């Protein structure tokens, strides 16, 4: 089986992290976002993953070469010269996707994090005999999204309603699809939206089905959702593989600490924290609801909450970092500095406090 991952463009919503590397390579729970997807695809027998990309494909491919060998899966790129929407890239990668086997292929949105129920998806797809299956997830506020109206019993999709004013349902497109090769005959090689143009046509032919996603779902393409996604992901680890989580008197709730990270005496870490490879956390540090990426040093008695600390940055002693502060790569925060929602571009030194949310160029 094959899979296409829609990587797309510049990842502007996750800047300043995406100024250093393409969004799918930004760490999430101590490994590149896209690796969560590729590993799950490999587990259900996918042999080739195609990345639909219009921005720096060489960076992606060089990085993923190592994982290609490690996982034993082929990773290739299909490069757009202009943005092709969410369906155009399928037409562009047509020759890579069709191998004559007639097997369906996966299409994923690269920002989506979940438990990836791919084996259930394959079973459901084969059982209904339609042309395409989309995964849907239930949300509390459907009016912010495009809602999928479907038959509860069979999963057959009746129609789509964009940002409904009155309640028509609470299931939205989760950005995970399993499509028969025949779907490619419906897509022209031009910028096209799969959600707004292709799926409604398949639904009107009674050939589109939806499977409700078990477990959590999050689009982690922006900082607040990234932090929420980390909480949901760690909750799911607690249920499914609790041995991967850190234990100890200094740990509160769900915490992921890379084996190469060093945590000093008297720290209090958690809940909902990921500490990456090679990090050094000095004694007396307090971390909660945050991600600390590879190679970061946090000095004594610093306190970090609801923030993302980019690769190889330093946080000074007694510093306080909170309220969705995001430090890009190699940012150095001085001792006793306070950051209230600062968004700091890479390679900066911060010597004075950031008292209200702002971008530091």
From TrEMBL:
Species annotation = Rhynchospora pubera
Q: Which InterPro entries match?
A: GMPPB_C, GMPPB_N, Mannose-1P_guanyltransferase, NTP_transferase_dom, Nucleotide-diphossugar_trans
> What functional role does this protein have?
Catalyzes a reaction of the Smirnoff-Wheeler pathway, the major route to ascorbate biosynthesis in plants.
User: Entry's CDD domains?
Assistant: M1P_guanylylT_B_like_N
Domain of life, per UniProt, equals Eukaryota
Q: Name one GO biological process term.
A: GDP-mannose biosynthetic process
The record's listing under SUPFAM superfamilies reads:
Nucleotide-diphospho-sugar transferases
Q: In which pathway does it act?
A: Nucleotide-sugar biosynthesis; GDP-alpha-D-mannose biosynthesis; GDP-alpha-D-mannose from alpha-D-mannose 1-phosphate (GTP route): step 1/1
Stored Pfam families: GMPPB_C, NTP_transferase
Give the EC number(s) listed in the UniProt record. 2.7.7.13
Going by the UniProt record, its keywords in alphabetical order are:
GTP-binding, Nucleotide-binding, Nucleotidyltransferase, Transferase
Enumerate the spans annotated as Mannose-1-phosphate guanyltransferase C-terminal domain. 251-360
Output this protein's name.
Answer: mannose-1-phosphate guanylyltransferase
Q: Name one GO molecular function term.
A: GTP binding
Q: Where is the Nucleotidyl transferase domain?
A: 2-233
User: Its family?
Assistant: Belongs to the transferase hexapeptide repeat family.
């Amino acid at each position: 089986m094959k899979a296409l991952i829609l990587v797309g463009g510049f990842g502007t919503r996750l800047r300043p992290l995406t100024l250093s590397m393409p969004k799918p390579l930004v760490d999430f729970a101590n490994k590149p976002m896209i690796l969560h997807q590729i590993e799950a695809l490999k587990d259900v027998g996918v042999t080739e993953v195609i990345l639909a990309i219009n921005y720096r494909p060489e960076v992606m491919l060089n990085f993923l070469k190592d994982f290609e060998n490690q996982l034993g899966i082929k990773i290739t790129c299909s490069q757009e010269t202009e943005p092709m929407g969410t369906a155009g890239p399928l037409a562009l990668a047509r020759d890579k996707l069709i191998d004559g086997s007639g097997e369906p292929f996966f299409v994923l949105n690269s920002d989506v994090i979940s438990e990836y129920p791919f084996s259930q998806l394959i079973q459901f797809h084969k059982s209904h005999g339609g042309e395409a299956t989309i995964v849907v997830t239930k949300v509390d506020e459907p009016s912010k999204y495009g809602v999928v109206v479907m038959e509860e019993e069979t999963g057959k999709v009746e129609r789509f309603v964009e940002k409904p004013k009155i309640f028509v349902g609470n299931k939205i497109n989760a950005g995970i699809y399993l499509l028969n090769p025949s779907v490619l005959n419906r897509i022209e090689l031009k910028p096209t939206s799969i959600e707004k143009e292709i799926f409604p046509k398949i639904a009107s032919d009674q050939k589109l089905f939806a499977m409700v996603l078990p477990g959590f779902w999050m689009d982690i393409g922006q900082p607040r959702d990234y932090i929420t996604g980390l909480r949901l992901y760690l909750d799911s680890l607690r249920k499914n593989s609790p041995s991967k989580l850190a234990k100890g008197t200094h740990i509160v709730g769900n915490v992921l600490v890379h084996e190469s990270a060093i945590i000093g005496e008297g720290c209090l870490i958690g809940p909902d924290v990921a500490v990456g490879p090679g990090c050094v956390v000095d004694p007396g540090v307090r971390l909660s609801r945050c991600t600390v990426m590879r190679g970061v040093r946090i000095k004594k008695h610093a306190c970090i909450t609801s923030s993302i600390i980019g690769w190889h940055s330093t946080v000074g002693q007694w510093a306080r970092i909170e309220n969705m502060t995001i430090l890009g790569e190699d940012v150095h925060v001085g001792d006793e500095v306070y950051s209230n929602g600062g968004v700091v571009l890479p390679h900066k030194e911060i010597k004075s406090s950031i008292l209200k949310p702002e971008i530091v160029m």
